[in-house]
Amino acid sequence: MQEKENINKTMMFEPQKDESKSVKEILDSVYKLLSEKGYKPVNQIIGYILSDDPTYITSYGNARNIIRQVDRDDLLEELLEFYLKENNIK
Fold first, then answer.
1. Cα separation of 13 and 23, whole Å?
2. Euclidean distance between the first and final Cα of the chain, in Å?
3. How many whole angstroms separate alpha carbon 55 and alpha carbon 31?
4. Spans of all domains in the chain
5. In terms of Cα–Cα distance, which of 89, 87, 90, 39 is closest to 63?
6. What does the alpha-carbon distance between residue 72 and residue 78 come to, in Å, rounded to a whole number?
7. Are the C-beta atoms of residues 65 and 45 closer than 8 Å to each other?
8. How far apart are CA 61 and CA 53, in angstroms?
9. Dihedrals φ, ψ of 83, to 5°?
């Protein structure tokens, strides 16, 4: 009986996190895949970060699942820290 009750519930899918890859490696990978498909990677990644809409990231090469391995807050933190370091602000 319990199985029938679960049919009407929305199931959540959580992509498995690959702890062996850094945020930088994940961003590099997704950037390259977006470029290969002819997208403007910066625009697509910003759209994803701001909206949390995974459709900003192509499914080509599994890019959408790859970027979802990292929390959006962690992506923003990595980007901001890099910017501050590169501009001698931090």
1. 21
2. 59
3. 15
4. 22-86
5. 39
6. 10
7. no
8. 18
9. -60, -50
Of 30, 34, 15, whose CA–CA distance to 67 is shortest? Answer: 30
pLDDT tens digits along 39-81: 999 999 999 999 999 999 999 999 999 999 999 999 999 999 9
DSSP-assigned letter for residue 70: S
**Residue 49 neighbours by CB under 8 Å, 6+ apart:** 72, 75, 76
Cβ(70)–Cβ(30) below 8 Å: no
- CB-CB contact of 29 with 63 (8 Å): yes
How far are the Cα atoms of 15, 26, 32, 82 from residue 20, in angstroms, in the given order? Answer: 15, 10, 19, 20
Angstrom distances, CA of residue 32 to CA of 7, 11, 17, 56: 39, 31, 20, 15
pTM tops 0.90? no
